User: Fold this.
Amino acid sequence: MKRSKNRFVNYIIVLVFFAVFQILLSTGTLSSLLKGQLIPIVSYMIMAVSLNLVVGISGELSLGHAGFMSVGAFTGVIVEAALLSKMDPSALNGNMGMQMMILAVAIVIGAAVAAVAGFLIGIPVLRLNGDYLAIVTLAFGEIIKNLLYCLYVYIDDRGLHFSLDPNSLNGTTVLNGPMGALGIKKISTFAAGCVLLLIVLFIIQNLINSKSGRAIMAIRDNRIAAEASGLHVTKYKLMAFVTSAAMAGAAGALYALNYSTIVPKKFDFNTSILVLVFVVLGGIGNMTGSLIAAALLTVLPEMLREFSTYRMLIYAIVLITVMLLTNNAKFKAFLNGPFHKEKKEGKE
Amino acid sequence: MSDIKVVEKPGPFTEEEKKLVNVPSDTFVTERDKDKPLVLETRHLGIDFGGLTAVDEFNIGIGATEITGLIGPNGAGKTTVFNLLTKVYEPTRGTILLNGVDTHGMNPASVNKAGIARTFQNIRLFDKLTVEENVKIGLHNRTDYGMFTGIFRLPKYWKEEKKSHEIALELLDIFGMADQADVRADSLPYGAQRRLEIVRALATDPKILLLDEPAAGMNPSETEELMKNIAKIRDTFGIAVMLIEHDMKLVMGICEVIAVLNFGKIIAKGTPTEIRNNPQVIEAYLGSKKDE
Ligand SMILES: Nc1ncnc2c1ncn2[C@@H]1O[C@H](COP(=O)(O)OP(=O)(O)OP(=O)(O)O)[C@@H](O)[C@H]1O
Ligand SMILES: [Mg+2]
Assistant:
């Protein structure tokens, strides 16, 4: 079966991607521009495959995926600050194990909070039959951004405090309203990002190839027939949506902990649309395409700065090429080539 | 099913409530089913769409292993009856008893779990899934593992998937479709799509199977084959089948009881011979321009 074979292609793509850039990194041949882009690329790859779970597999449109990324990002930042405040400031220096531990905790809690947000939105909306999810997620992204504009978080000797009043800031500022998070310790690493991406792919692909994933796709293909076959439609729509939200939260935490400052505006409507563009260009429901599109289209704008005049032209050409390639049956067959020869599935 | 439900008003009863009335289904069943409870019974079933009364006073009782035909001219309300029985629409009035249980308040999924499965007049398959996966959706509620077990592929995942794979192939084999298990549903020819819908419905382990024009678009030899298979399904699974069909050869050939619907009302009910000779039916349906 096509879907189950494709899984391994995606793991291999990620491993090769990791190996190539890790070698380039260690030999120092990587430009500083690209070096800074590695973790964002991985984050956007996670964003793209997780959104594809909603758009491609569950067949719902989400226009606020960056909102979940934002929830994960700022939750991750707060978790990191809270954990570090309990430790000796020098404890992190050179202690990779400790650094990864904190990163893992930040990512897991970021994912959990984003999942809760996804659940709260999904519960009322996914009961309805129609495109309400697009409207509500669009609003959600904006609401999260505006909430963060008013949120002030600081740590003093009595612990972690949340406030809506900028004048209450005291001790170490973690979140400063519209100015965002300050003084983040950069603990994300490229390797950790790749591991996270592999975990996300593992979960998504195994989910798709299980009873639950089958139900999610059946509901996408024909809701009425799915109900008539005894499927609980809301449950499975919610399952896909919440899983996707959690993964976006994880990507957000990974992303944010790669910078020393991050502002809420980073995760606005444009970012949601950007991720949707990755999914659409990569091919709806096609995880491999999402990975490739996210990687190419994240680095490209940066790389093209050098060609200032032709930048948009080249960008457009790449968009079209990616679209043609990822949606082209022959190209896909070529990608899958070594793994299974029999590709003609009942084409008549 | 045996739990005692609290009735809204247990009593005391008014004089009006004590009056004896006929149960309207005036049911007859086949000899072999006479000691078994009815699998389906409707009383005063009806639905209005705005001002239009699409179905009214639909009363029927179906024996446990009976093959029933529901016929009538286009727009008579046949599909609407199926939609009422499967809760696609909530009835405006009347009661549906499935194995004696009132289906009031159930949704399409729960009424399926309670034992009713159907196919659709305009085929509704899961197009992008394979034939086998379509059947496995029918087996969904019989496949016992959750999301976590599925993601981490715990032993139960393999056991249950193997089981449902085997049952799916067995069911597909009824229609000789096991060799097409890995084909995408939307790439099947039309007749095979109709057959797949039946297999998927059967996979939900129903007590009664509703088939909405199963032979539509099939050629005569396919229809012949289908007739045999419907009878075979009833014989192997011991379930009731109710089918809507315009192909009179099929209906008269396999149905033991036929109900004729016209303008949303049953105008005749009986054996194929009785229906064929009923003047009202001839006028309303067989005698109309529609060739038989
Ligand atoms: N959802 C709906 N809203 C309004 N009217 C409806 C609806 N569904 C069915 N009807 C009307 O109810 C009547 C019965 O339709 P139905 O589809 O049940 O006919 P049918 O007997 O299945 O006909 P056919 O042989 O053409 O399939 C028609 O007049 C139809 O227009
Ligand atoms: Mg009809």
Summary: The two ends of chain A are 17 Å apart (CA to CA). Strands of chain A lie at 152-156, 159-163, 172-176. The CA atoms of residues 118 and 315 of chain A lie 33 Å apart. Residues 2-269 of chain A form one domain.
